[in-house]
Design goal:
mainly alpha, 7 helices, two-stranded antiparallel ribbon, globular
């Protein structure tokens, strides 16, 4: 009975050590290619763009946002990354620019000019009315 517990603890230490020795570029690559994390960040970035562009729409409440980001953070921690490595990824200017580009491309594919307030507001209202995953996160003011 003690052997599986010891093996699990040893595996956790080895994985944590491997993550600690990883460069920030490798951390960024892994987190960027982890769908649960990157899709979660995309959703958050899309919500931020919509609510920043359209003053008639508000984001989820503070507690909801904190819980959401804590879930993403915990997923990254389970991959063995430290707080500093995760923050390095989130705060990386190139990653932020890349995500803004993805959000803007997503909106353009939906027929929305990402810089046009009226178009973004119409998109947000349609998402809210449709009860989509995004729409359920937004509220009209």
């Amino acid at each position: 009975m003690k052997t599986p517990i010891l093996a699990f603890a040893l595996a956790a230490l080895v994985n944590a050590g491997a993550a600690a020795a990883t460069t920030q570029a490798e951390v960024n690559e892994t987190l960027r290619n982890t769908p649960a994390i990157y899709n979660g960040l995309f959703t958050a970035a899309l919500i931020k763009h919509v609510t920043d562009t359209c003053p008639a729409v508000s984001p989820p409440g503070r507690i909801t946002r904190v819980n959401y980001f804590l879930g993403l953070y915990n997923q990254a921690r389970r991959l063995g990354y430290s707080r500093a490595q995760i923050e390095g990824f989130v705060e990386d200017k190139a990653e932020q620019a890349r995500m803004r580009g993805i959000v803007e491309s997503h909106l353009r594919r939906a027929g929305v000019d990402p810089k046009n307030e009226a178009a973004v507001c119409a998109y947000a209202r349609a998402e809210i009315a449709g009860g989509t995953a995004l729409g359920r996160q937004l509220r009209e003011r």
